[in-house]
Automatic annotation (TrEMBL):
Residue spans of biased composition, Basic and acidic residues class: 281-297
Gene name linked to the record: Crtam
Protein's name in the database: CRTAM protein
Domain of life: Eukaryota
Keywords, comma-separated and alphabetical: Disulfide bond, Membrane, Transmembrane, Transmembrane helix
PANTHER family membership: CYTOTOXIC AND REGULATORY T-CELL MOLECULE
Species, as recorded: Buphagus erythrorhynchus (red-billed oxpecker)
Length: 297
């Protein structure tokens, strides 16, 4: 008898009988000495060690480790105005296994590595990758390209390019060509991150720019000035709420004091009436006492 087991230890086929209810497995050939099967629509969850058992007078077994490669998505290129001089380029890709390699190519033939960061997805298998590059000066005729390499691409490369002439022309943007002072890698401060939810296939990482204008695989992003105003409003909201809470508590305390004062006044009036009644009773008792004494004599 022949038997195939998947990495989880479940029997896939026993001789020509399919045991595992997964329609992606197909029987290719079965004979006394051979059991060949096929798996289609492979995913990274299918990788692991597959076992083949041969039951005869002498038990034999063989194991084979299957490694699955997941090709990355096409890179998405974003450009934003830098806080200082120049622009910042950001390149994003997701859904790859193993981690991809990202580099930057300028029109003068210079290739740079940039600041590349990797983040593991929620499934613990696929990666999301971002790379940033800061351009200090550029000319409108220049170009910059994000190049993606991965073993699953089998020697091919994915590329997203930016033509600087497509950018909105800021004041004093025109300067020396990229060959003179092209670019520097972006510093790690405030890196362009990908949150664990962003892939079209894996919802663990999704990056959404604030203000964008789409051109093929290029997204132009400009930081809105209103972010500072929104932050100030949020900072002012907490003191206003605290002041309102204190005001409400003060009103409650005042109402309680007024009610307590009224209760004390009512209690005092009742006490005065009781004392007056007691004094009147005592005076009447004193008036009756001499009459009784005379009667006794």
């Amino acid at each position: 008898a022949l038997q195939w087991l998947n990495p989880d230890g479940f029997t896939i086929f026993l001789n020509a009988l399919q045991v595992l209810r997964d329609q992606r497995y197909k029987l290719l050939h079965y004979s006394k000495d051979e059991l060949s099967i096929q798996l289609s629509n492979v995913t990274v969850q299918d990788e692991g060690i597959y076992s083949c058992f041969y039951y005869s007078s002498h038990f034999q077994s063989k194991r084979h480790n299957v490694e699955i490669l997941a090709a990355p998505s096409h890179p998405v290129l974003e450009v934003s105005q830098d806080a200082g001089r120049g622009i910042k380029l950001s390149c994003y890709t997701q859904g790859s296994k193993p981690q991809p390699q990202i580099s930057w190519l300028l029109d003068n033939g210079m290739e740079l590595s940039g600041d590349t960061r990797h983040q593991l997805g929620a499934d613990g298998r696929k990666w999301s990758t971002s790379s940033t590059l800061r351009i200090l000066s550029y000319s409108p005729q220049g170009t910059a390209s994000c190049i993606l390499q991965h073993p699953a691409l089998r020697g091919q490369r994915l590329m997203a390019s930016l033509h600087f002439q497509d950018l909105p022309s800021p004041e004093g943007a025109e300067g020396p060509s990229p060959s003179e002072n092209p670019a520097v890698p972006s510093s790690p401060e405030n890196p362009a991150g990908i949150s664990p939810s962003s892939s079209p296939n894996d919802p663990e990482h999704q990056h959404q720019p604030s203000q964008t204008s789409q051109m093929s695989h290029l997204t132009v992003k400009q930081d809105p000035e209103s972010k500072g105003i929104v932050k100030k409003e949020k900072n002012l909201l907490l003191p206003i709420l605290v002041a309102a809470l204190i005001f409400v508590l003060l009103i409650i305390v005042l109402l309680f004091m007024m009610k307590l004062k009224k209760a004390h006044g009512a209690w005092k009036r009742e006490n005065d009436v009781s004392e007056q009644t007691l004094e009147s009773y005592k005076s009447r008792s004193n008036e009756d006492s001499p009459g009784h004494e005379r009667n006794g004599q």
